[in-house]
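Lecture 7, part 2: worked example. A protein chain together with DQA.
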Amino acid sequence: MKAVHVLNGPNLNLLGTREPETYGHATLADIEAGLAARCKPRGLILYFRQSNHEGDLVTWVQDAGRASEPVILNAGAYSHTSIALHDAIKAVKADVIEVHLSNIHARESFRHRSLISPVARGVILGFGALSYDLALEALLAQAEAAGKPGPA
Ligand code: DQA
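Predicted complex, written out as structure tokens:
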């Protein structure tokens, strides 16, 4: 495992000021910095992106798949609606870990269903910014267990 793609969907650019009682006070830049600090000593390249547009996320999943590189995906509200993202994940070989800051099952019923979950390698949710760190550690542990440790 040489690189990891962390993809963020709509409204996640507003983290820090967006409903902090639900999503916490960390900004997206804080989350990126935390992940970068974990990736750097392991020699892992971090591609960290955010878009409010569904098609961008689809394209980035395809790009990661083409490179056979894993993805940590917080698709935001598109998690609950996007057949296009479901199909993209299904179409690529790369592992996709779905993450959410909040516990979507403890919230409004329209958030209980994720179209990403059935095609994700795994799902981590409810731990705030830590959900991203846990997803990265899961990918690394999995790669190590498969006898493919990172370069460091
Ligand atoms: C979210 C949960 C989604 O329901 C919501 O639309 C988001 C953020 C989370 O990280 O908790 O935008 O994905």
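The pocket of DQA is lined by residues 11, 74, 76-77, 79, 100-102, 104, 111 (CB under 6 Å). The chain has one domain: 3-145. Keep this in mind for problem set question 3.
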